[in-house]
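Exercise 7.
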Amino acid sequence: MSTAGWDLIVVGAGSAGAALAARSARQGRSVLLLEAGPDYRSAQMAEVWRSPNPGRALSDPAAAQTLVWADVNAARTERQPQAPYWRGLGVGGSSSVNGQIAIRPPMADFDDWAAAGCVGWSRRDVLPYFAKLEDDEQFGDASYHGRGGPTPIFRMPKERWGGVDAALSEAASAAGHAWAPDVNAPDTTGVSPYPINSREGRRVSVNDAYLEPARGLSTLTIRGGALVDKVVFSGGRAVGVRMLVDGAAVTEYADEVILSAGVIHSPAILMRSGIGPGEHLREVGVEVRADLPVGRGMQDHPMIVLGLPLTPEAAIKSPDDRHTNVCVRYTSAPGAHVNDMMLVSLNQNVLAMAAADTDLPAGGVGVWLNQTFSRGRLELVSADPARQPEVHERMLSDGRDLSRLRDGVRALAELARGPRIAAVVRDDVASYNPALFAALDDDAALDDHLLATAVDAQHGTSTCRMGAPADETTVVDPSCRVLGVDRLRVVDASVLPSVPRANTNLTAIMIGELMADRLG
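Solution. The predicted structure, written as tokens, is:
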């Protein structure tokens, strides 16, 4: 045990934090893992959260209130009001409540990071950690995959796909998109089955995969119900954290502090600690320790969902039927970033379920920007740790994003009008989506519709951006160290320089794995 109390304090038991804490404890470091939500054993997780269909739990208020932050909101575009932004609460973090998508970004993302100043994050650096974290039952023997890792990787066989899965796959193939059986193979493009982090039809979160097997270690202590207020300093060095436990202030000390509280709460803790945009911190009464662009640069994947009124034959037969199994990566235009767009199937419209939409059976097909340029911001409304920050994602604020999503929606509408998707719907798709189709042929009208209706994919990143220390947008260096402060790092999706061209969960786990080896 360190004379400071612990070798490491890790704040946040989500995808990155759980992997980092468990691996570090196995390497012999004494680790205190703090989680604002409940700590519970794997066997205690409500079965509704194990379901292959996350819509079951998200539409169940009793289930949602236990593992989802109730008061985290975000405005998606500058024309939209604040609305719930689902973030996981409790051990496992968002891996306990997300769509169980275990997809890697194209490896070119990481070469782009390295070229932009994130030395040590190229494809050569990260690929071994993507392999290490996984147990890929179908492709595990490939040189770029792994077997025996903590995270199971499963792909639903075609005979168990839903009606929309099959329709989108057939429609995209007819439109010229190639079949790609392993979307996680480097530089893959085309129509693919989604890889899923489940085993025998049940969700496997990072609590299951990393923390449960490590709970017997003398080097790991997990403490739930610990809402971290701020980092504690001695001079220019982080020495611990101050937290609220059962309403009382508690301070714990360590040789090093690592924030893994996610895209919303890692920047909030930094700002309450005096690390952030100086002018903003002064506005909320926080003394400035380091003037850094914390909370700036947020990204997510803006998405439009085209609702589909499904025939009884195409609708899901059980509430536990998988909500999506198929994705289509493609490139918007010659000269654009490869795989900058994504199409997804929705056998059941989870977004509608969460909004208590009763028009079922209904599914959808969605299109999102896999690579985005727009940047949002997160700011404190108060120095009170019980108050959530205000989030403005500012999606589609960059014209390059708006124009590409406009083109993507038109391409999606064309697919939806075609014979493959027509075979699974009970009514005309245009009449089911009247506002979108009324705007389809007018750029200005369609832009207005997109700005009013775009949703995010719950893939928030980049509020504590990693980069070269001399870059004015950088918060943490390539070793995830907060600039200007000793012994303080951020290790989670908030450090990503930009949102990757994929769902973010697997990348967040990879970051935790990689950084556990680099802390020494």
